[in-house]
Design a protein that fits this description.
7 strands; Double Stranded RNA Binding Domain; about 280 residues; single chain; seven-stranded mixed beta sheet; alpha/beta
Length: about 280
């Protein structure tokens, strides 16, 4: 087993590699998706339900791959959203000045996200909080899978890359005889622009491959979490315990939707006593 992948060069690079997207598209994903998650979920239900086919339901042995390293992201869309008001209040010169500030803020968004993400992650670690958000989520999902009668193997590894419909985990050697369920977990605080409040953003992307590694089904879920809210980045940085708890709360809410979206709404049933295995942690 290879060591887990270290943190990438920057948090923005990490997410851009996920889907090959531009910074502008990335910001739209983190901000707009969080705001519109409810509508998107409702619109996608018929399509998701239609894809609960026999291949998905018959996956009796599942290897659950997840990015164990928690990567806490802090981002905003840049700009202030006040350019028009500046023109009305301060005239043409004020409007030009506001526009210059707004443009500069958007241009420096990547560097700001990278710096703040590293600072926030370090602050959470220094506070003594356990950096196990991703692992806890994976263990909860594994428990739900076992309740449905499936055998589960947990494998912490590096973060999956590529578009959601084609996610791959570099250097991963799937376990023979198991379907592979790849998780890509994103935990962040996002704001619509540089002067808006920061709110929790949780995203869990899933891709199920059968024993032959053919794609069977894909889902994505976001958490409907509006608290805690921080009016400034400084406020977020000074309240790491509560902020970290907000991300955990969001992940907890995604467990059942993630299971149902991938495997359907079957009820838990009794299982033989057998502990879930974690690759790299338990003896083989």
């Amino acid at each position: 087993m290879k060591l887990l992948n270290p943190l990438p060069r920057s948090f923005m690079d990490l997410l851009r590699l996920d889907a090959g997207m531009s910074l502008q598209k990335l910001t739209s994903l983190l901000v707009a998706t969080a705001l519109l998650a409810g509508c998107a979920a409702e619109a996608s239900k018929p399509a998701l339900q239609a894809r609960q086919d026999a291949a998905t339901r018959s996956a009796a042995k599942v290897e659950l791959i997840y990015n164990e390293e928690d990567q806490l992201i802090v981002t905003d869309g840049g700009g202030s959203g006040l350019t028009g008001f500046a023109g009305l209040l301060l005239g043409p010169i004020g409007a030009l000045l506001a526009l210059s500030i707004d443009t500069n803020s958007r241009m420096t968004m990547a560097a700001r996200t990278d710096q703040r993400s590293k600072e926030f992650t370090a602050a959470v670690k220094n506070s003594g909080a356990a950096m196990t958000l991703n692992r806890q989520f994976a263990e909860q999902l594994a428990a739900r899978l076992r309740e449905s009668g499936r055998e589960v193997k947990l494998t912490p590894f590096m973060r999956a890359t590529g578009p959601a419909s084609e996610m791959k985990v570099p250097e991963l050697q799937p376990t023979p005889g198991y379907s592979t369920l790849i998780l890509r977990i994103t935990t962040a605080y996002g704001a619509a622009d540089a002067t808006s409040s920061f709110k929790p953003f949780i995203s869990v992307e899933q891709l199920l491959r059968d024993e032959r590694q053919s794609v069977v089904h894909q889902t994505a879920h976001t958490a409907d979490v509006s608290e805690p809210t921080y009016f400034s980045y400084d406020g977020l940085l000074k309240d790491t315990a509560v902020a970290h708890g907000g991300l955990k709360q969001g992940l907890d809410r995604v467990v059942q939707p993630a299971y149902a979206g991938m495997f359907g709404g079957d009820q838990p049933r009794a299982l033989p006593a057998e502990s879930t295995r974690t690759a790299g942690l338990d003896a083989k």
